[in-house]
Each structure stands twice: as structure tokens, then as C-alpha cells.
């Protein structure tokens, strides 16, 4: 009890308690990072050619550290906002478990270190893309777009779309149409994915003045845009097959997954909220959207491995 009282007194006084390793891990947003690492790995495995396992591991590690560094910088900059939102109030800085400057320094160290190691150990084009993705998320999205425009997620979605492009470039050393399509898939996937989340946490964003689409444009407009993006995502997801960059396994998977994505988006796009609405369709869509990306990129790798083994053409 005394320990809890001391903790509360420290937070009230604005004094950060000593952070432990779990707080530093939390700064990297590990749940988000898992998707970043997975899509980066899939881009690396699906790329034509070969890469030494140690170099490949280094590339994925740099992607993970770069994403973690950007996430830490995001939390450093938004600490005041996070403290006012129910969903984020328990993060290390607003909860008083970490000094804000330490979070900033940790984010800079991870970001700079990941770019330098990527350049020296893998290639400078991959390193340049990684550096740009970090700056895009930490500066363009976090500091500029997010507090100013409801299109923040649309434009800012590019930050999370870089990992498969970086993974591909780590193997091939150049940028071709196929990795650009992988980038485009995540870019188009991000708005319906995030807006589905924003629908059931919109009161948090409204409280802190962040102009997320449901807050500024209203629920009806946001629902329609979620459905529109879900429909637009389908041909983009199938594009790797259209350009002969992927085979039939990927095509069938992309078609089935996209059809399910649209099916779950229809009740979101066409319904009208009630005061006691539990947002169940939005929560279902948000949950499936995460599975969608894992399954889609997983199918791309399986398709590539089967083609390499001569099982499919």
C-alpha cells in the first residue's frame, strides 16, 4: 500500500519513476511492430534472388528497431495527448514510469542505429528507405499531419507501408514494380483498418482535439469511406497477380480475403449508429483487417516458395 501511495505521489508531482526494460519495450509498440516485422520479412522472402541468412536477419532486425525508434519518438512527442486518452493513458510516459527525455533519446538511438547498421550491413538504398519511413512517421505523420487534417491516416499510411519495400530492396538492391505494389496494398489497407478503430475510440480523439475522420467528418461519412477503401483495396491486392509477380495461390488468397474484407465493411458502411451502439461491426472489421494483412502477405511467401520448389508454375 505504501508503495502504491508513493507511486501515485510521484506521478502527481510529475516525477518519473525508474523505468524497467518492459517500459522500453512498450515504447516500441510491440503489437504494431509485429505486423511491421512480418510484412518486412515477407517482402524479403518473396523477392527474387537470394540473400545471406545473416544479412537477411540484420535487415529484419533493422526494420524492427527502426519501427520501434519511430514509435518511441511518437510517444515522446504525444505524451501530453496520450495522458488524456483512455486507450493510451497507461503508456510509460503519461503513466509516470519514464522520463520524457529518456524516451526521446531512446527513440533517436534506435532510429539512427538501425539506419546506420542497415547501410553498412545490408545496403544504402534500403537504409535510405528506412530513414525516410522513420522520418515520415515521426515527423510528417506525428508532428504535422495528425494534429492538422482528417486525412492524416490517408497520407500518413505511407509510413507503415515501407517494410515490405525495404525487405525487397534488401535482397535485390533496386526498386521495381512489385515492391511498389506491396507498398500500395498497405497504403490502401491503412484507412479502413484505422478508421474502424477510430470509430469506437472517437471520444478519445475528440477530447484531445485530434481531427480523426469520425470526429471531423462524422460517422456517416467515415463509414462510407471505409467501405469505399475496402472496395478499392481489392484490385490493388490482386495487382501482383495481374502483373505476373505472384501465382495462383496468392491470387486465390487475395480474392477470398478481399471478398471477406468487403463483406465485413458493408454493414459498417451502410449502418447508422444508435446512442447505445456497441460498434460490433467496426470491431469485427478491425480485428479481421489485421488477420487480412498477415494472411495476404503470408500467401505471397507461400506462393513464392511453392514456385521455387517447382510445385506451381
Explained architecture:
The chain has about 325 residues and is mainly α. The protein has two domains: about 20-175, Tetracycline Repressor, domain 2, CATH 1.10.357; about 175-313. The chain is built from 15 helices and no strands. The chain has helices at about 1-10, 20-25, 30-45, 55-75, 80, 100-120, 125-145, 150-155, 160-170, 175-200, 200-210, 215, 220-240, 250-270, 280-310. Helix 10 runs antiparallel to helix 15 (about 280-310). It is flat, with a radius of gyration of 20 Å. Mean pLDDT is about 90; it is low at about 1-15.
Helical fraction: over 70%
Q: What's the domain count?
A: 2
Estimated structural class: mainly alpha
CATH topology of the largest domain: Tetracycline Repressor, domain 2
Mean pLDDT: 91
CATH 4th-level superfamily of the largest domain: UbiA prenyltransferase
Architecture per CATH nomenclature, i.e. the level-2 architecture of the largest domain: Orthogonal Bundle
Question: How do the strands and helices of this protein lay out in sequence?
Answer:
Elements: H1 2-12, H2 21-27, H3 30-46, H4 53-77, H5 79-82, H6 100-121, H7 124-145, H8 152-156, H9 162-172, H10 177-200, H11 202-208, H12 213-216, H13 219-242, H14 248-270, H15 280-308
